Amino acid sequence: MDFSYTIFILLIPITTFLLLGFFYNRIKPAVSGWIGVTALTIVAGLSYYTAIKYFFYTPKLEGKYQTLYGIKMNWMNFTDKLHIDMGILLDPISIMMLVVVSTISLMVHIYSRGYMDGDRGYTKFFAFLSLFTFAMMGLVVATNLFQIYIFWELVGVSSFLLIGYYYEKPSAVAAAKKAFIVTRFADLGFLIGILLMGYYGGSYDFGILNNPEGAAIMNWASSSFMGLSVITWALLLMFMGGAGKSAMFPLHIWLPDAMEGPTPVSALIHAATMVVAGVYLVARMFPMFYFVEDGYALHVVAWVGAISSLIAAIIALTQYDIKRVLAFSTMSQIGYMMLALGVSKFDGHEGLGYMASMWHLFTHAMFKALLFLGAGSIIHAIHSNFMQDMGGLRKYMPITHITFLIGALSISGFPLTAGFFSKDEILAAAFEHNKPIYFITLFVAGLTAFYMFRLYFSIFWGKKKEYEHTPHESPWSMKFPLMFLAFMSVAAGYISFSEMVTADRAIFHIHFDFVGAAIAVSVGLSGIALAWFFYKKPTDYPEKISTAFGRFYTWTFHKFYIDELYLFITRTIIFKYISGSFAWFDQNVVDGSMRGIGNKTVSFSKLIKGLQSGKLQDYAVAFAGGAFILVLIVLYVL
Amino acid sequence: MIENISIYELLTVSTILFFIGLYGFLTRKNLIAMMMAIELLLNAAVINFVVINKYLFPDMLQGVYFSIFIIAVAAAETALAISIIINLYRLKTSVAITETETMKY
What we know:
The structure holds two protein chains of two kinds. By secondary structure, chain A is mainly alpha-helical. In chain A, 70% of the residues lie in helices and 3% in strands. Chain A is built from 25 helices and four strands. Chain A has helices at 7-22, 29-57, 92-115, 122-140, 145-163, 170-201, 206-209, 215-218, 230-245, 254-257, 263-272, 277-284, 286-291, 296-318, 322-343, 352-382, 398-411, 418-433, 435-460, 476-491, 514-535, 541-549, 551-557, 562-608, 616-637, and strands spanning 68-77, 83-90, 224-225, 228-229. In chain A, a hairpin with a 5-residue loop joins strand 1 and strand 2. By secondary structure, chain B is mainly α. Chain B has three helices and no strands. Chain B is elongated and about 50 Å long. Classes of the chains: A mainly alpha, B mainly alpha.
C-alpha cells in the first residue's frame, strides 16, 4: 500500500501559513478565510481517505494492524544505530489523531470566518491556525522522539502566538507568556527524558523502542538510578513534558489563563488537539510504559491523571467565567484519559483502558470543541464571559442552545451519547484494575455532570435578563460547525473503536456491562438533577451551600491557591532568596573587586600625577638633576 | 698660540658655557631667552667636540665634522622653534613659558 501522498497532509497547511503570512497585507480577509478553509478541507479529505484505506483496505499482519511509513528518511546520523529520522508514521493512533485534528481544525476554520469577522488581524489569525495545524499534524505522524519533540515545540509556539493574539490586552500577553514558560519548563524534562532514552535505550525510533521483544524493553534493568531503572526515569521525565502540555496537576496552571485567546483557538488548541498531546505521547510510548519496571511509570501516569481530574472538577464547580469552567473541565477529562492509560494492560481485552482512553480522546475532542464553539457563540452575542451576565438565552439562540445541550449531555455521560460510551469504558477499565481510581472517576463523573449543567442552566435558563442589545443567533458559518460537532458528539459513540485502536493492535470485542453503566449513568443523572434543582430557576441554594462549605469554598474558588504557590516559589524563594543572594554576590564581590582595583589605581595616580605639572622647566630640572645624579653614581659608586 | 693653552682650560670654558646655558634654560621665563640658552648648551658641546678631537686625535677630523653637523641641526631646530613661538604668540599674545602649561595631567 502506498501512503506517500500523506506528505501533503503536512505540506498543505505549511504552504497556507507561508502564503497568508508573507502576503497578509495584500490578501483580503474574505479571501484568506476561504484559502484557510479550502486548504483544511483538502487536508481533512486526505486524512479521511487515509483512515479508510488503512483500516479497511490494508491487509493486517497476523491479525494486527501494521506500522506503515508514508515516507521515512534519514536526517541526522550519530552512529549506525543512533540516528534521527524524519518521516510519516501511520498506525491506528496516528491515523485516529489525523482524523481528529483535521476535523476539528476544519470546523474551527469555518467557525472563525464568522467569529473573527471584522477583526484587524483576520489574515494573521488564519495564518497562525494553519501553522498550528501543520505542527499538530507533524506531531502525530512523528516517527521518532526527536521529530515529536520538534513539532511539540512548534505547537507550543503556535499556542503562544494564538493565546497572545489580542496582544493589546496585558492579560492576554501575560497568559501567553505563562503558557509558554510553564510548558517550556515541562519540556525541559521531556528533552532530558529523550536524551536518556537515546543513551540507555539505544534509539529514538518508536518502532525499535516499543517492540515488546526489543532490546530497549528487555534490558530495562541494566542501569539504575536512585532505586529506579534509568529507563523509568526517562519515561517519567517524558511524562513530565506530556503533563505540561496536557495541563496535568501540578503543571496545569497555564490552561485556565490560556482562555484569554480567541474562543475558536480555545476550542482547537486548548480543548481538542494540543492539550491531548501528552495523552498521545503516553499512548505512543505505551509498550515502554507498560513493560519497563512492571509499569511503574504507568502507575504515576494513572495517579496524576486521577488527581488532576478530581482537582479540576472541584475547581470547575466554583468558577463563573464560562470559558474557565470549560478549561477546567478539559483538564478533568484529560485526567480521565491519562488514568485510563494508566490502568490499562497490554494484551487483548486487558488493554481496555488504552482503547477507552483513545476513544475518549476522540469523543472528547468532538464534544469539547462543540462546547467551546457554543461558548464562543454566546460570547459573540453577549460580549461577556461571565455567567452572571447571562440567563434565559434559549429563546434568543435556539441552535446554540440545542447544540450546547447535546455537548453537555455527552460530556456528562448521558445514555446513548458519545461521551456515555467512551466514559463507560474508562470506568470499566478502572473498575477492573484499580478500585480507588474507579471511585475517584465515578465521583468526578458526578461532579462533571453537575458543573456542566450548572453552566447550561445558568446560561440558557435561570433569571430573565434585560439585555441592552437583544442577543441574536450567530451566522451560518458559526452554526454549521456547531451542528456538525453536535452530530459527531453523538455519532462518535457508535464507531467500534475496539476494532481499530487497541494497545496490542489486535481486535477485541467489548462486552457492554449494564450494571457498571447503570451506576455511572445514575451518578451522572443525579448530578444533572442537582444542577436542575439549584440553577433552573434562580434560588438561594448555591449561596447557602457555598457558605456552608466556608473556607473550602474560598479555597476552591481561588483554585486551591496553586497559582499563588507558584508565585511564592518563583518570586519569593527563587527570585528573592536564591537569585537575590547570587545577585548580591555578583554585585558586591565580583563587581566590587573589579571596582576596587580601578579605584585604587585612581587614588594612587592622584598621589603622583602632580609630577606631570606641564611646566617645561620642571621637567628640565628633573632631567638635568637625573643626569647629575647618574654622573655622581658613575664617578663615586661604580 | 693654541700650544700654550692646555685642554683643561679649554674644557673649563666649555663647562662654564654649559652651566650658563643650563641656568638660563631653567630660569628664564621668556621662550626666546630659553632658546638662546639652548644655543649656549649646544655651543658648549660643539667646543668639547673640537677640543677633544684636537688633543686626542690630531690627525682625524670627525670631531670637526660633527661640530658642523651640530651647528646645522641647531639652525634647523631654531627655525622650527621660532615658528612654534610665533604661532604661540599669535594665540596667546605672549611668549612667556608660563603660557604653555596647559598640557598636564
